[in-house]
């Protein structure tokens, strides 16, 4: 019989479902109240909600990650108790060699633990703000690297800090004549970074104010 043949008609009511989230295909393991496997299925991303909408409300576990927050909100709207867990807390429940179905079974086992630490499902606004902060952190790191290069070329004092001005770039150009070309190149990158940072900082403050 094919590996997913149990997907057709579960022999007992499903109490818990573990979902292994893939890029396009999801693997499901369903357990009854005694812990026996009564559902073993592989569904596409587009089929998942329709499939779970036809099941009675139950406990559903998933590893927290990209896309799991959106999916958990959709499943809760269907009446299921969807919960997210850090991947490192699921790993101890993995049996044998790693594969998609065993990953799903480990999720189903882990989500039942009374001492499990769950991750709260984020709203769309929270995910947008999180992405904004990550972009801002990357821009700050790039800006800091540019200023550090200028400080190195200028042999500036270690305590000097001009992150929000072009002083470091100008000083580096004066210290090394050939640094003028470097300064022009860096300044071409500096202005977009600075404008982008200001824009994201303004958006971040406005969203926090709305909250």
Summed up, what is this model?
50% of the residues lie in helices and 14% in strands. By secondary structure, the chain is an alpha/beta fold. A five-stranded mixed sheet has the order 3-2-1-4-5.
What key phrases describe this protein's structure?
211 residues, Nucleotidyltransferase, domain 5, 7 helices, 50% helix, disordered N terminus
The CATH topology label of the largest domain is: Nucleotidyltransferase, domain 5
3D shape: elongated
* Regions with little confidence, pLDDT below 50 for 5+ residues: 1-8, 155-165
> What is the beta-strand fraction?
5-15%
Q: What percentage of residues falls in helices of 4 or more residues?
A: 40-55%
Number of strands: 5
SSE topology:
Blueprint: E1 16-20, E2 25-31, E3 37-44, H1 45-53, E4 59-63, H2 68-77, E5 81-85, H3 87-90, H4 100-110, H5 124-154, H6 167-175, H7 179-210
Descriptive notes:
- This protein is of the alpha/beta class and 211 residues long.
- It has two domains: 5-110, 2-Layer Sandwich (Nucleotidyltransferase, domain 5), CATH 3.30.420; 124-210.
- The chain is built from seven helices and five strands, in the order βββαβαβααααα.
- The protein has helices at residues 45-53, 68-77, 87-90, 100-110, 124-154, 167-175, 179-210; strands at 16-20, 25-31, 37-44, 59-63, 81-85.
- A five-stranded mixed β-sheet has the order 3-2-1-4-5.
- Strand 1 and strand 2 form a beta hairpin.
- It is elongated, with a radius of gyration of 26 Å.
């Amino acid at each position: 019989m094919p590996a997913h043949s149990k997907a057709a008609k579960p022999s007992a009511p499903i109490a818990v479902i573990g979902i292994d989230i893939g890029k396009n295909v999801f693997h499901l393991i369903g357990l009854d109240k005694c812990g026996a496997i009564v559902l073993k299925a592989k569904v596409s991303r587009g089929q998942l909600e329709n499939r779970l909408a036809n099941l009675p409300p139950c406990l559903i576990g998933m590893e927290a990650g990209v896309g799991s927050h959106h999916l958990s909100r959709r499943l809760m709207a269907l009446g299921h108790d969807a919960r997210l867990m850090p991947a490192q807390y699921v790993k101890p429940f993995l049996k044998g060699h790693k594969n998609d179905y065993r990953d799903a079974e480990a999720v189903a086992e882990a989500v039942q633990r009374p001492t499990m630490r769950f991750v709260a499902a984020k709203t769309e606004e929270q995910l947008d703000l999180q992405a904004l902060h990550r972009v801002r952190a990357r821009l700050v790191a790039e800006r800091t690297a540019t200023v550090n290069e200028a400080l190195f070329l200028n042999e500036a004092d270690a305590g000097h800090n001009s992150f929000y001005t072009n002083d470091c770039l100008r000083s580096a150009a004066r210290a090394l004549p050939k640094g003028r070309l470097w300064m022009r190149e860096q300044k071409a990158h500096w202005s977009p970074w600075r404008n982008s940072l200001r824009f994201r900082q303004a958006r971040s403050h406005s969203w926090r104010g709305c909250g």
